Amino acid sequence: MTDRELSHKRPAAVSRFYYGATYYPEHWDADVREQDPARMAEAGFNCVRMAEFAWSYLEPKEGVCRFELFDRTIEALGAEDIQTILGTPTATPPRWLTAAYPEVLRVNADGVTMQHGSRQHVCPSSDTFRAYSRKITRAMAEHYAENDNVVGWQTDNELNCHFSECHCSHCQAEFQRYLHRVYDGNIEALNAAWGNAFWSLTYRGFDEIPTPAHGKPAYANPAHMLDYYRFISWNTTRFQHEQVAILREVQPAWFVMHNGTFAHIDYRGEFGRDLDFLGYDLYPFFDPDPTHRPLSQAFNLDHARAWTGNFMIPEQQSGPGGQGSYFHDNPEPGELRRMAYASIARGADSLLFFRWRTCRFGAEAYWCGVLDHDNVPRRRYDEVKQLGQELETIGPEVLGTHVHVDIGIAAVDVDVYDAHLPLSLGLPSPKEMAEAIHGFFVKGNYGVGCVHPADDLSDLRVYIMPHWALFKPEWLPNLQAFVEGGGVLVVGARTATRDMHNNVVAETPPGLLQRFAGIRIAEYGRQNSPETRPLSVRFYPSGNRAASQLWYEQLEPLPGARTLARWEGRHLSLKPAVSGRKVGEGAVVYVGAYLTEAMVSALLPSLMDYCPDLAPLWPDLPEDVDVVLRLDQEKRLWFLINNHDMGVSISSLPTGFNLITGQPARVRMVLSKNEVAVIREGE
Ligand code: GAL
Ligand code: ZN
């Protein structure tokens, strides 16, 4: 366990900017492999990740290990100053294991047992599987303990990516034991907490409680679901911890990370604290819209950084991805490099591409690597090589800096995310709403990021909590201190209306935020027909108006709160919709509607009233140019990224030195299509 504070401002604990790719020597013959180290070195690689799916090579028969291929590969790479991150191969347990112990296979909510033949087919609740996981981890760790070319480890691979809700007999028993611990063996306490009076769900003992199967036959109890999701996080964390403990015991000098991020894992909890830093796998082309892709990438990166701070990217898409029935766009010339810079701008302190060379076989035969199937280097290789050369200067510059955030959006609370799932009312999730708000501010060139409410809020001017129905009382003092110190807190409709068990609170909404926000909700409703029964919110004094889409709340301001906007339409006309209350040096703004882009845009002047110097990071940038500031005590690095489909001309620039061109930054600059400037301020 590492005890360094998790914060969106924490730099990743890496000793150099690791740059390279994931590499699968087990897929290739010796004559192809031989050329790899020199070619990687020429591309500026200093790191590869290997072995995370190689269990059947490493341990072809139970207890018989062979390492030759990896030994030789690690050595040949080391001779080119390319270091290795190894993965524990537990996402792909071999056939001898599943054949001897078929009970290790996962079971889905329909009771169907998963089969051998792909990956993530085995359950971490199984004692048998965990024993084998510890054995292979120890065997690999001990074998490489004194190998200087091995610098760190990745635990497993993308835990919970394909499968998380397991219903096998081990999970049933383990879930019951988990609940027994959480509720101190008191079944009445659990019945009360879950509201089991409803639908006769009362249990007589922990051994009667099943893993919940939503919709089989009817809706499951949301409290039962939330505790089950918490169990999955706990169980996954325990599984990982057993590997981490072995790796740290065998060689304390190694770093340990994991490549996320997926459902039902609390990366801000023990899972993340167990690691030196988090890994985040980035696949921008899953967004099918090329014009929207830079925005979704920016959100995904800012969201990833909110868990534990700056991260490594163990896998960034290096070409079109193809699997099953899809095949992504081929990145156009310059796109891979631009997307890599976007990642570095928003918190990547190391970056590996997925993958070195496209494999000719298997389910991912069209997941394109830096090199094609035929091993011929083409434009993707050239781009990766150009970036490798540039990172020799830029890599060391970014280490130790963090991304500057003026506007924080609440994100990455796994309880809040999971509480939404079983009782969403068809409303967008907190994460989807965070993305909508984030997009608005990115387009406006603001310094925006995602920040957990327990994190350091001290640099922020504005903090927006979008519709967090579940709200933890322990966050209140941090939010109060933020506002008293001059921050503006924006609270979206429905916040603080559910408790830690996912039950509705007894107080009038917004529950324990009532006094802080200075309002009560007199009436609320879902808008199912916004076209035929439109409602809009009209702001004063700006006169701005925004159509409300999903939900309305009629506010009742308490003494001390001002009405900032009123409803227009139906029986709500002129009723308060948005309120503001000054607290200390700052203010709390409550918005009784969903914070869509249009709503946030209309709200902005009201925020500026409380926070007059709130401004974009850099003024007057052309459309589709992204600006991000990374800084530390001594240094400010400005990233300007051209996402436009053409070259753009920028007429005002931070004064300094462009690390990409090696030239002083001029007053004016032309950024060609897909081009980037990284300006170190000051010279
Ligand atoms: C990632 C995974 C890789 C590979 C890649 C492309 O999620 O970690 O192993 O599968 O996606 O599909
Ligand atoms: Zn299971």
Secondary structure blueprint with pairings:
Layout: E1 19-22, H1 30-33, H2 36-42, E2 47-50, H3 55-58, H4 68-78, E3 83-87, H5 95-100, H6 127-144, E4 150-154, H7 169-182, H8 187-194, H9 222-250, E5 255-257, E6 259-260, H10 270-273, E7 279-280, H11 293-308, E8 311-317, E9 322-323, E10 326-327, H12 335-345, E11 348-354, H13 379-398, E12 402-403, E13 407-410, H14 414-420, H15 430-443, E14 448-451, E15 462-465, H16 476-484, E16 488-492, H17 514-517, E17 519-526, E18 535-539, E19 545-548, E20 551-557, E21 561-568, E22 576-583, E23 586-591, H18 597-610, E24 625-631, E25 636-642, E26 648-650, E27 656-658, E28 663-664, E29 669-671, E30 676-681
Parallel strand pairs: 1-2, 1-11, 2-3, 3-4, 4-5, 6-7, 8-11, 13-14, 13-15, 15-16, 16-23
Antiparallel strand pairs: 9-10, 12-24, 17-20, 18-19, 18-21, 21-22, 22-23, 24-25, 25-30, 26-29, 27-28, 27-30
Helix pairs in contact: 6-9, 11-15, 12-13
Bound molecules: beta-D-galactopyranose and zinc ion (ZN).
Beta-D-galactopyranose binds at residues 157-158, 161, 281, 315, 321, 323, 354, 364, 367.
Offer a quick outline of the entry:
With 683 residues, this protein is α/β, with parallel strands linked by helices. 29% of the residues lie in helices and 20% in strands.
